[in-house]
Design brief:
The relative contact order is 0.11. With about 400 residues, the chain is an alpha/beta fold. Helix 1 links the parallel strand 3 (about 30-35) and strand 4 (about 60-65). The protein has an eight-stranded mixed sheet with strand order 1-2-4-3-5-6-9-10, sandwiched between helices. A three-stranded antiparallel sheet has the order 11-12-13, with no helix packed on it. The two termini are about 15 Å apart. It has helices at about 45-55, 80-100, 110-120, 150-155, 170-180, 180-185, 205-215, 235-250, 305-330, 375-385, 390-395, and strands spanning about 1-10, 15-20, 30-35, 60-65, 105-110, 125-130, 155-160, 165-170, 190-195, 220-225, 265-270, 280-285, 285-290, 330-345, 360-370.
């Protein structure tokens, strides 16, 4: 993902650390604000994966550390649920002033409760999505159960949350208990998507039911079956991001397709070293992701570049055969093209000893299902060799490279 590091002033006057993640073509159709879970930060792997799932669909996503957390300034003990909501509003103001007003809020856990409260205060917001959110913010008090009495008695106390010490003041407890989220949800007139795992041990799924019952239509629920509260599994967090992005397309306004800032058919973008080898691609207006397997240091979020190359040959072969069969009006039900790529010696070569004599082989196997005679099947195999990508790979190829002078089109 391409990202820009930014800072904006939070509700308590401190500078908050944030990042805006952009789609590969650098032209988002909508902006989203993501609110992380209680005491978490924007660098949580699940947060990154959810954002990746959304940028693949053309969204730009702003994620930030609430006051006193992560790389943001301020004292966490001075914050509360109300200040988190105000931080979200400050983030929306920053986006509107410097980029484009956000149309969607996404929140995880207590961040989900916060976005439900903030949505009604931000006019540009059309859709809200929660992930493992409590129906009432005071649900998080069970995390500091051991220190509640000490906080009430002394006005503050240091408590352990997720293995880390945090100073909590009495005003934090009072603020949580004063908020009635369900009443606010009942008054909310925005599209709502609720994602929750039935196996969530931190925030029980009954919370999702309570939110759903109070929310007005259009509202939707997606079960994250098998996921834990923090969406620790990469598959779960990626799925959540992709589902949210797909759902949102129905409730947001997407501008007409803009021309990307290149005349090329394809643009590929790879971020900094934290993103490893994950590469976002826009090919003829379609978003793809390429990557490398985990065993070679990648995230395995998409197929490898060679996987894309074999895909091109397989797809072109299948399309060519379908076109030919349709033109001939032959009864072809299905076509499956299997392709493998390898480097090996050519058995017909006179020089089989040198390492340089290895060449690239594409092994292609074609399944054709349908009511065809042997002559028709043989002809289709012959036609496979005439597919344009096949011809390109066997022709003389020259790649010319120059530095591209990018133009900022945002």
């Amino acid at each position: 993902m391409k990202k820009e590091k930014i800072n904006f002033e939070g509700s308590l006057g401190d500078q908050l650390s944030a990042e805006i993640h952009f789609p590969a073509d650098d032209i988002p159709h909508n902006y989203v604000i993501f609110a992380h879970c209680f005491t978490c930060n924007k660098n949580l792997n699940a947060v990154r994966n959810i954002i990746l799932g959304m940028t693949k669909k053309g969204f730009a996503v702003l994620s930030f550390d609430f006051t006193g957390l992560g790389q943001s300034e301020g004292d966490f003990s001075d914050t509360n649920f109300s200040s988190n909501i105000e931080d979200l509003i400050k983030a929306s103001e920053y986006l509107e002033k410097n980029y484009k007003a956000a149309s969607m809020l996404v929140g995880h856990s207590l961040g989900g409760a916060a976005v439900l409260m903030a949505a009604s205060k931000i006019d540009s917001i059309l859709a809200v999505s929660t992930i493992g959110a409590p129906s009432q913010p005071d649900h998080v008090l069970h995390l500091i159960e051991d220190g509640k009495e000490k906080i009430k008695k002394n006005g503050e106390a240091e408590v352990n949350i997720g293995g880390r010490p945090f100073k909590i003041k009495k005003q934090f407890l009072d603020d949580l208990q004063s908020k009635d989220n369900l009443k606010k949800i009942e008054d909310l007139r925005k599209s709502v998507l609720i994602l929750h795992s039935p196996q969530d041990q931190t925030v029980e799924i009954s919370n999702a039911a309570a939110i759903y019952e109070k929310a007005h239509h259009p509202k939707s629920f997606i079960s994250l079956d098998g996921a834990d509260h923090l969406l620790s599994s990469k598959e779960d967090s990626l799925y959540a991001g992709e589902v949210i992005a797909t759902w949102a397309n129905r409730y947001i306004e997407k501008p007409k397709q803009k021309k990307i800032s290149t005349e090329s058919q394809t643009v590929a973008f790879i971020g900094n070293k934290e993103q490893k080898y994950t590469t976002q691609i826009v090919a003829e207006g379609h978003h793809l992701v390429a990557d490398e397997p985990e065993k070679v240091g990648g995230n395995n979020f998409g197929t490898s570049p060679y996987g894309l190359l074999t895909s091109a040959l397989a797809a072109c072969t299948a399309i060519t055969l379908r076109m030919y069969a349709n033109r001939k009006k032959w009864n072809v039900d299905e076509i499956l093209v299997h392709v493998d790529q390898d480097q090996r010696y050519d058995k017909d070569s006179e020089d089989c000893e040198s390492e340089n004599s290895k060449i690239t082989f594409f092994d292609r196997s074609i399944e054709i299902k349908g009511d065809l005679d042997e002559k028709q099947r043989k002809r289709l195999i012959e036609i496979a060799n005439k597919c344009p990508v096949h011809k390109t790979l066997e022709s003389k190829i020259k790649i010319e490279t120059e530095e591209h002078k990018a133009v900022d089109s945002r």
